[in-house]
Amino acid sequence: MSFRATVESMSKVMDDMGITELDLERQFLFGLYRKHIHLSKQQAAAVMPNLPIADAKHAHSEPATERVSGYALKSPMVGVVYMAPEPGAKPFTSVGASIKAGDTVALVEAMKTFNPIKSDKDGVVKEILVSDGAAVEFDQPLIIIE
User: What strands lie across the sheet with 79-82, from one edge to the other?
Assistant: First the structure.
């Protein structure tokens, strides 16, 4: 089984069981590695597919008046998303900005590595669905491009 298939399988089991925290411990030749991971769930996307993710938390208090349309650029991995190259720097993109295929629109940090997230389409950024420093899931929509 590939690493990706293993992660996807574990993710499904954890979702089915409602597990949101995980303690990892592994013995290596040079010592013991311990890691506590708090997993965030994508907000109600599977339950309410017609709502934009940014509005899912308000689903019970406000009716959704505008549907998101366009192409959703998704996270290729689990990690922490950063919308700027460094703290205090200008963001890679903003709502209303024109972007071209290949432009970096965000970074996802996974295992202490910053991975550039590049647009695979030309267009205009219609909506940014995540906030800087937020935990993201595999295949979670990050930006809507129209």
Answer: 113-118, 104-110, 79-82, 135-136
What pLDDT score was predicted for residue 12?
A: 75
- Of 135, 138, 139, the C-alpha closest to 37 is 135
Q: Outline where DSSP puts E strands in the chain.
A: 21-28, 31-38, 71-74, 79-82, 98-99, 104-110, 113-118, 123-128, 135-136, 141-145
| Residue 14 binned pLDDT confidence (cut-offs 50, 70, 90) | confident
The per-residue DSSP string of 68-103 comes to --SEEEE-SSSEEEESSSSTTSPPS--TT-EE-TT-
How many CB atoms within 10 Å of residue 140? Answer: 23
**Residues 72 and 141 sit within 8 Å (Cβ to Cβ):** yes
- The answer to whether 97 touches 125, Cβ cutoff 8 Å, is yes
Residue 53 pLDDT > 50, yes or no?
no
- How far is Cα 53 from Cα 4, in angstroms, rounded to an integer? 24
CA distance linking residue 90 with residue 134, whole number of Å: 17
DSSP letter at 66 equals S
